[in-house]
Fold these 2 entries.
Entry 1:
Amino acid sequence: MALMRRQELEASCEVLKIGDLEMLDYADSGMMGWPSNDAPGSFWQTPVQEGAARLAELMRHYRPDVVVTYDENGFYGHPDHIQAHRITMAALEMTTLSPKVYWTTMPRSMMQRFGEIMREFHPDMPEPDPAEAAAMAEIGLPDDEITTWVDTTAFSGQKFDALAAHASQGENIFFLKMGKERFGELMGMETFVRVQDATGAVVPENDLFAGLR
């Protein structure tokens, strides 16, 4: 499975025209609460300072102008997303770099639309229990707290093809069932919260490189 995912990731990067791919080869930890969370070598079990030191070395090499990672909750509580946040922020502290830093998130209006489309494709989906519904309502941020709205509609076909190349990830199947047109309607806007900036670019902004170009 690890080899398959590496090959799929490489194929996705080729579709997206990513020039440099660095693999740190940590094992997938699975969803929160799964036994794989505790497996030796899983990303969730990696000491933050160890992972951060490896990432800081790459940052010093590439000297990024912009760094993007998950928010503190990994968007929806995925352990590897949370760990990616912790390690990225710790790595930045280990360097003397001062890039623009963004946490990826979703406005709650978009989450509501996402839920409507899920029911469109799965009309027999049961109603969530109150606790689950309350947890879902807390995913993302109020629209007015989003600092950065980037229209990626022109690239939605590439994004769809990149997901198709990475189809072993089960969460991608739902998006692929939409087809490219509906996928573009739902996923044509990427949203972020800017948490570090030395450019003084005014927010809300529509470009991660605002103030740098």
Note: The longest strand covers residues 189-196.
Entry 2:
Amino acid sequence: MAGYHALPLELLAEEFAKLPGIGLKSAQRLAYSIISRPEEDVERFANALLSAKRDIHYCPCCQNLTEMELCSVCADEERDHSLICVVESPKDVTALERTGEYTGVYHVLHGLISPIDGITPDKLRIRELLARLQDGKVREVIMATNPTVEGDATAMYLAQLLEPLKVKVTRLAFGLPVGGSLEYADEVTLFKALENRTAM
């Protein structure tokens, strides 16, 4: 970062640049925007950041992000707890919930198997998923990982792992392009993918 900026401004821009998808120019624009705002707005922004970091944790059941003891989906007795949809990240839960059609619960892996990136199965929330299946109450597990090499590899790995448990394992019938992302899919496409899921 050029040294002609005030040091606190440079440091702020450097912090913004550490966020995914934020380049140096965007980081500088964000830093200037923060400086131009009233102090109470900046305090509110800083408090929101700290509150999110301090108060949000993993749901002990599904591993989604929540500020409550259990996330709202796991705590909802109206949901079908015998149906678990396995996704890569909390953003995918949000995408599927937008359809308004899925009535089961979720399990968030927080990543996909990718040996080239050093992500092995033990680094994902697979142990927690297996623990949920021990009581025999789950009738179906839907693999809703993205249709990428890593997503498919993770879904296949989990399907093989779950085979001895005699639970039905299905895969979303993707109306999505290969290499696409659930996060950016529209509600109708996601609903059709859920509706037309296939056995693995």
Note: The CA atoms of residues 82 and 139 lie 5 Å apart.
